[in-house]
Amino acid sequence: MILVNATDKYQIIRAPSQTVKKTSTKRKFDFFFGIFKLLYLFGLDIGGKKSKKATVKNCLSVFNLRAAMFHLVCVNLTYSMFLYDFRKTEKTVRKVSLVRKVPELFTFLLWYSVYYKRNSIKNLMSRIHHVNQELSLSTTTAVTVTGFAAILVIFIVAPLSILLFESEETLLFYTEYYNFGVRTFGAGVNYAVTVPTIFAYYFYIFTFPACVCVLYSALCLTLKRALVAHASLARAEFAGLRKRHLLSISGRYGRILGLVEHFEDALSLVAFFLSFHYFICVFYFLNIYQSHQESSPYAKYVFYGLYGIVSYVGMAMFASSVTEADRAARRANRDLFRRAHPGGGEGQSTDPERAFALTGWGCFTFTKSFILAAFGSILTYTLLLMQLD
C-alpha cells in the first residue's frame, strides 16, 4: 500500500507493512543461513561429494578445522548484521563494534595458520619426543602443565567470558532472534540454532586462541629444557673431554638446533597471528576505556584487556626463554671447542651472541627487551588516557 501526503502530492511514503515485510525477509534469510552453517558444522556437508548423516559418530569425525573456520565466518557475518541493526544510531558504539571485529578476523587467520601448518606441527611433536628420549628427559611436567592449563581455559575462561559479555545489546540480539524463530518455526527449532551459535562464537573467540597460546608456551618450555639439559651435559663432560665426546656433543646440539629451526618454521606464522590477536584485544580495551563515561569500566572490558596482556606477555616470555637457553648452550659449546681447538676455527661457529631467536613470522623477535618495550608502551598509553579522562 502507498500513501500520498496531502501537503505534497508527489511525496511518496512507504507503509509500515512494507518495511516489516523487508525486515522479515532479511531475518528469515539469516535464520536459514544459521541452520545451514550448523548442519555443515555437525557433519552434513551440503552439496559436497562425501555427504554423511548427522549421527554422533559422524559428527565427531567430520568436526574439523575446515568446518570450524566456515562456522566462524558465518557467525561473524550474522552477528555483525544484527549488531548494526540495533546500533546504527550510535556512531561511537559502531566504531567500537568495528574494533571488536578485528580480533575475530585474526582468530580466523589463526585457525587458517594452524590448519595450514598441521603436518609440520605433528612432525614437530614427534621430533621433540625423540630429542627428549636422547637427553633422558621426561615429558610428564610439560604434559601436566598443558593439561591443567587447557582445563583452566576450557572450563573457566570460556564460561567466564560468556557471562561477562552478556551485555544489553547481546540480550537484545538473543530476544529478537528467539522471538522471530518462535513465530516462524516454533520454540524448539530456534533454541537448537541460537544457543549453539552463540556458544560457538564465544568459544572460538576466547578458548581457541588461549589453547593455542598454551600449546605454544608448552612447546617453548620443552625446547628450553632440552637446551638447558644439553648445556649441563656439555659442562659435565668438559673435564674429561675427548675427540669422540666432542663429535657426540656437536651432533647432539645440531639435532636440537634443527628442532628449534623446525619449531620456528612450523609456528612462526601462528605466533604472528596470535600476538596480533592479543594486541588487538588490548587495543579494544583501551578504546572502550577511552569512550567510557563512568569512573570505572565494566568488568567484561577489564577482563578483555587483562586477557590480552597476560596471554601475550606469557607467550612472549616462554619464547624469549628459548633464546636465553640457546645462548647458554652455545656458550658451553664454545668453551668445549676452544679447549679442543686452541687456535680457534670451529669455535667461531658457536658464538653465543648469535643465539637462535624465535620470531613472529620474521616481523618481530621475542626477546625480553621487546616485551618490556611493548608493555611499557601499553602502560604509557593507558596513563595518558586516564589523564585525558
Q: What general outline do the C-alpha atoms trace?
A: elongated
Q: Biggest sheet: strands side by side, in what order?
A: 1-2
Distance linking N and C termini: 52 Å
H and E order:
EEHHHHHHHHHHH
Count the beta strands: 2
Q: Tell me the helix content.
A: over 70%
Share of β-strand residues: under 5%
State the major sheet. 2 strands, antiparallel
Whole-angstrom Rg? 27 Å
What are the segments in which pLDDT stays under 50 over at least 5 consecutive residues? 1-23, 40-66, 81-89, 91-95, 166-174, 184-190
| Number of helices, where a helix is a run of at least 4 consecutive DSSP H or I residues | 11
Structural class, by secondary structure, is mainly alpha
The pLDDT mean sits at 65
List keywords for this structure.
single chain, 389 residues, mainly alpha, two-stranded antiparallel ribbon, 2 strands, 78% helix, elongated, transmembrane helix, receptor, Gustatory receptor
What do you see in this structure?
The chain is mainly α and 389 residues long. Helix content is 78%, strand content 2%. The protein is built from 11 helices and 2 strands. A two-stranded antiparallel ribbon has the order 1-2. A hairpin with a 7-residue loop joins strand 1 (2-4) and strand 2 (12-14). Helix 1 runs antiparallel to helix 3 (65-87), helix 3 crosses helix 7 (168-184) and helix 3 (65-87) packs across helix 8. The longest helix is centred in the middle third of the chain and has 50 residues, at 187-236. The chain is elongated, with a radius of gyration of 27 Å. The two termini are 52 Å apart. 26% of the residues are buried.
